[in-house]
Amino acid sequence: MEIAIVGAGLGGLALARVLHVHGIGAAVYEREPSRGARGQGGMLDIHSGQRALDAAGLTDGFRSIARTAGQDMRLLDPDGTLLLQEDTPDDAPFLRPEVDRADLRDLLLDSLPRHTVHWGRAVASAEGGTLRFTDGTTARYDLLVGADGAQSRIRPLLTDARPTHTGQTIVELGIPDVDTTHPDLAAALGRGNYWVLGDGQSIGAQRNASGRVRVYASFYRTDEDWITTSGIPFDDPTAAKSRLVDLFADWHPQFHALIQACDDEVVPRQVHTLPPGLTWPSHPDTTLIGDAAHLMPPVGEGANMALLDGAELAGAIAADPATAVERYEREMFARTAEAAHQSARFQELLSAPGAAQRMLAFFRPG
Fold it and tell me: What is the annotated quaternary arrangement, including any partners (predicted)?
């Protein structure tokens, strides 16, 4: 059975790794030219996805790169009031540790046989058991798995569903080596996640394993052309940070200082999702995993679902290749529908008036 996996993200690599554990080969085709061609983003909260890493035989490796301290959380009002502070004991169990996405991807890549991943292979089309790439080469498959993210080239083979804009736009910034460059901010931000929630806006900060703090300025009621109409000159980082400070003008000055401390990396991103509970008629030779199948708001479930997709599809293939896709999809649809609906509700909580108090009630019910 020739298994072609399109996309070398977490889901595709977990699938390839668990297949390898079962003695089954697969080829992963990735459009990026090399493993280091693009930054992999920030930290991930890995909880249910740990089951997939256990199936992959990578639990020890995961624990060596994960940070239990990343479970720390601070929640503030825009006026600077600290509403909630949770600090994780040094001996805390690995329930929801944070891990750098790049480190987790490297762990999965290094666990695969050489030449499993074929870099620089962007898909042009797929039909009749043949993948065609933009460089003119082809590859055969008996099973095609789309693990190629939000803008999947494989998804249209199964469904007409397309991602839609949620109304949220995120501007990502960052402070390098924060403990050295801004020790006062480092102390205020803590070791894990830091949230300031206002009316339709938020500022989040997240410490990476490298010492860099990623800062996220979010706007929840934006149009799809907001990046061009916001008045933020993204090609001029200094002016862009000043404009962001203006957009948070009525917030406490400590948050203005946080924005101004960031370096010249200012990147806007819109948040898109697929309909929660998306399904499609099963095809025995094609399926989807990860964001290609169930793109969700970035609130902590997407990476976990992708890892589980990969591990569970691999287990189904090992058990019975003839029925694997149908059995995997039936279970995946049920599992991810609940996660997608929960993520959508959490996203609504973040964007609602009085978000800080609502979040406080979420974490401290009653």
Answer: Monomer.
